[in-house]
Write a structure and sequence with these properties.
Largest sheet of chain A: none
Number of strands of chain A: 0
CATH superfamily of chain A: AhpD-like
Shape of chain A: globular
Structural class of chain A: mainly alpha
CATH class of chain A: Mainly Alpha
Order of helices and strands of chain A: HHHHHHHHH
Oligomer: homodimer
Largest interface: A-B, 53 and 53 residues
Strand content of chain A: under 5%
Distance between the termini of chain A: 40 Å
Helix content of chain A: 55-70%
Number of helices of chain A: 9
Radius of gyration of chain A: 16 Å
Chain lengths: 190, 190
Amino acid sequence: MPHIVLPEELPGITAGFAFRPETAKPMRELAHVLLHASGNDGFTSADRELLAAFVSSRNTCYFCQTSHGAAAAHLHEGGETVVNAVCSDYKSAPISNKLKALLAIAEQVQIDGKRVTADLIAKAKAEGATDLDIHDTVLIAAAFCMYNRYVDGLATWQPRDPAMYVEMGKRMAMQGYVSGKDPDTRSEQR
Amino acid sequence: MPHIVLPEELPGITAGFAFRPETAKPMRELAHVLLHASGNDGFTSADRELLAAFVSSRNTCYFCQTSHGAAAAHLHEGGETVVNAVCSDYKSAPISNKLKALLAIAEQVQIDGKRVTADLIAKAKAEGATDLDIHDTVLIAAAFCMYNRYVDGLATWQPRDPAMYVEMGKRMAMQGYVSGKDPDTRSEQR
């Protein structure tokens, strides 16, 4: 049972968002920029969702790991197999060396930002990571340390129906995290 | 030295914000709502800044602990003494029992949201905490697990000049975290 009175029919973070629209707005916008709107050939939305699912798995946040894992599976040509491989042992997963290097940075940020070393950064740059890729990796990992704690700290309802997450992940992957009609976010849809 | 090329003259999170305005906007807005615009008699901005400084101290993020500590010291009648007491041993600090109960929740969220127990929530409610107070406490603690990791994960410049932080904290306490001219945030100034 949630620690505070939340809308009963809404799972995970969506219940917190409905409870407090004033904080939901920037939290949705941040996820939208980081995971959806900024995806490009060098660092795709699929890669970004994989990072989100990976960090959430390290924080053992069921709702975030499963929903972002489903979004990543929808976007990635390797589907669910790749998501599971990344979350269980990313170093042997069938992904690019660049993404492995970014995951190695995210792995440390999940514990403590101060654990990111110059060596990890140099390895990511050697694999072609730009400053923007590294910035976004650090912030995705940091942001999911927030989202995960928010979802779990309120003891939100986190249903165990896999089909629900597949549907949710597909919607997240296709539409992102803010309404397309929100004029605040138009400038970030680039 | 920062891990990526950041504006040299900007300390801590402000360098990350200048590097990436698209993510800075929602991150500033979230801090503004949680720490500044939502302060009220039952859960003041002084209390909220104390929570931010406390969580940052647990994450050993020098920049965030010192700047939000300075903001809290500016707002709280007990000044710096109270901030130091809260960060070293909040249970014996000269603060209300309600704030101690909220700090006990934040203390667990900083480690893992799943560590927040029904007992901790019941104690906070017994001291007069509302659902909104509890929600905002969980989210402040969660959000500083993001801000702290962002600041440290980029290896931002974190100067050691105390006077700079006093000035910064005063500005944060008085003006909040977004420009007053930003129309996006007007609705939250309630």
